[in-house]
Structures are given as structure tokens and as C-alpha cells.
Hints:
The structure holds 2 protein chains of 2 kinds.
Chain A: H1 3-29, H2 33-58, H3 62-88, H4 91-113, H5 145-171, H6 175-199, H7 205-224
Helix pairs in contact in A: 1-2, 1-7, 2-3, 3-4, 3-5, 5-6, 6-7
Chain B: H1 15-44
Amino acid sequence: MTFVNTxxxxxxxxxxxxxxxxxxxxxxxRPSKHVLLWGIGMIxxxxxxxxxxxxxxxxxxxxxxxxxxxxxxxxxxxWLGQGTVYLLAxxxxxxxLMVILFLGSxxxxxxxxxxxxxxxxxxxxxxxxxxLSGHAIITPGVRTLTPIFNLYGxxxxxxxxxxxxxxxxxKRVLLHRTIGNIxxxxxxxxxxxxxxxxxxGVPAALYIGELLGAVLxxxxxxxxxxxxxxxxxxxxxxxxxxx
Amino acid sequence: MMSKTPSPxxxxxxxxxxxxxxxxxxxxxxxxxVMLVFTIAVGVGVLKFG
Lengths: 243, 50
């Protein structure tokens, strides 16, 4: 048990659940599908981190592993991204994609919970077995679900946040939302960078990326939903030429 | 002769954000593109994943 593979993921999990609490509280005050789905996505994020911390503290457990792979590796990005779909896309498209995601999630859960596992294979990756990875799943076709769900979710979540930031910047309005969306986009990308550095052998990169991701998305959301203080200018109005 | 109507004030963010925001958006857009290309490359078998 080390700090990085036990406490880091537990901290990321706590941040995620806290963020989820704020999202559900906002949903209770003003129901909107995008906030609800982001809240569900952050619950998944928190579950994934909890399972990683559990593995670091107590070692291999097949149920914890399956829960980690389903929620942390497959579903989290897609459900967060689906929230952004409801925010930005037309309602009919959002509903259609939600049905596909829901059915796909059921299918993914079935495949993960019926997959054969080989915990010894965790040490074949550069993670050296101290971090969870998908290598323990030996049933063909299960791991190919991950990039499909992740690509959908990450492109939508990051792309949606970047698009929103661009729209606000183009109009030079609501600076707090511009900044917030940039932070959300960076936070959504952080776990992917963590995973990439982890594959290159950088210790704890995956868990650091996940913690950073949760923190930045949380800060970004708070920034985007909180107008700037009275003393901070949202815009700096420039006099027109000739005035 | 009609007088000119005054031009509306041009809105700008504070100077730091005028530079920072487009740079950040540009970098993020490139990252999304790279991730897309990488994932497609893995999907068609050009690159190995995992």
C-alpha cells in the first residue's frame, strides 16, 4: 500500500462525490437533464476512484475490479458527455443518444460481469500491478468497448466545453463561463493524459491525472455558475473609434 | 444632413483573458483532434492500444 495508489484515488473519489452532491443539489433547485447526467457521471467517477483505492489498500477483489472497469473505465466519460449533449444539442437528438447510451451501458455491464478475469495479467503492463488496468480481462471484445464509450464521452465533453467557451469569447460576454468551460475541458482531458503518461512508465500518473481531472472539473463548474465579483470586470468596454 | 449615429462600444475581455482564452481554446482543439486521430488509428489497427 502506498500513498499514490491508495490515498490519491480515495481523495479523487471524495472530490467526485462532493462534486456530485453539488450537482444534485443544483438539480433539486432547478431540474435540468444535463445537470442530472453530470451528477450521475461524477458518481461513476467517484466509484471508479473508490475501487482504485480499495485495490491499493486491500489488493485484488473480482467484484471491485468489475465495478471499477464498468464505472471507471467504460461509463464515466460517456455519461458526463451525455450531459453536455443535453446542454448543447437538440432535444430529439439528445433523447435518441440517451437511449443508445442506456442500452449500451446495460450491454457493457453484462459483458463486464460475465467476463473472465486473470489478475496475474495486471503485472504485464508497465503499471507493474500497482494500478488497476484492463489487462486482467481476458474475454475478447470487452476491452474494445472502452475506447468507443470514452471517445464519445470525451470528445463531447471536452468539445462541448471548448465550443461553449468559444461562443462566450466570440461575443465577449460572461467571462466566468468562458473560464469555467476551459477549466472543465482541461479537467476532462487530464485523466487521458494521466493514462498516457502511466503507459510510458511515469509512476502514479494515472491517479494524479484522475484527481486533477475531478478537481479541475469541480472548480470549472463552480466558476461557470458563479458570476465574477463586483470588482472583477466581465468585460473591458473599449470606446469606438471616433469617440 | 443626417448626423452619424454613434458606434456601439466594442466589448473586450480584460487584456490577460484576451490573450489567454484564444490560446487555451486553440490548444484544447488541437488536443481533441490528436485524440480523435489516435483513437481512429487504434480502431483501424494502425496503432496498437494497451
